[in-house]
């Protein structure tokens, strides 16, 4: 029990800078200010366009609110040759790791009622240099 408590204290100390990055709605300040508009989705449904004809916005992060935030760097999208874009979603590895982390957080949060564990999951698009930059930002608490 003592080791578990020490681990939780260590996690709180390590990940507490992330809590300061959240604004009053629980979203990170640096998250894109242009979420997918519902009006476009409704227009798409009523105009007869299928979702395959629509280009979905690229989401590079998933945020789960909580008292304690864990960080995760995942390879959700495959590598692309250009510097600023990602390739298609990696069906066999990328999205499954994110779903596994989210499921685990749900199971833990169902059992613990005193505080909630959240997460900041970022997509590094299978790029080593981009992942390294994100890891350094995690350590510095700049996200």
From TrEMBL:
InterPro entries registered for this protein in UniProt: GPCR_3, mGluR, Peripla_BP_I
Query: In which compartments does the protein localize?
Result: Membrane
State if Metal-binding is listed as a keyword: no
Key word Glycoprotein present: yes
Keywords on this record? Glycoprotein, Membrane, Receptor, Transmembrane, Transmembrane helix
Record's GO cellular component terms: membrane
Protein name per Swiss-Prot or TrEMBL: Uncharacterized protein
């Amino acid at each position: 029990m003592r080791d578990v408590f020490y681990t939780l204290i260590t996690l709180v100390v390590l990940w507490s800078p992330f809590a300061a990055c959240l604004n009053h709605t629980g979203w990170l300040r640096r998250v894109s200010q242009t979420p997918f508009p519902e009006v476009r989705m409704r227009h798409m449904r009523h105009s007869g366009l299928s979702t395959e004809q629509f280009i979905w916005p690229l989401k590079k992060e998933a945020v789960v609110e909580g008292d304690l935030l864990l960080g995760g760097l995942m390879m959700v999208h495959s590598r692309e040759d250009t510097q600023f874009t990602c390739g298609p979603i990696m069906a066999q590895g990328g999205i499954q790791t994110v779903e596994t982390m989210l499921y685990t957080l749900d199971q833990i949060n169902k059992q613990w009622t005193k505080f909630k564990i959240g997460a900041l999951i970022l997509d590094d698009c299978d790029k080593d240099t981009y992942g390294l930059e994100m890891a350094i930002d995690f350590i510095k608490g700049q996200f």
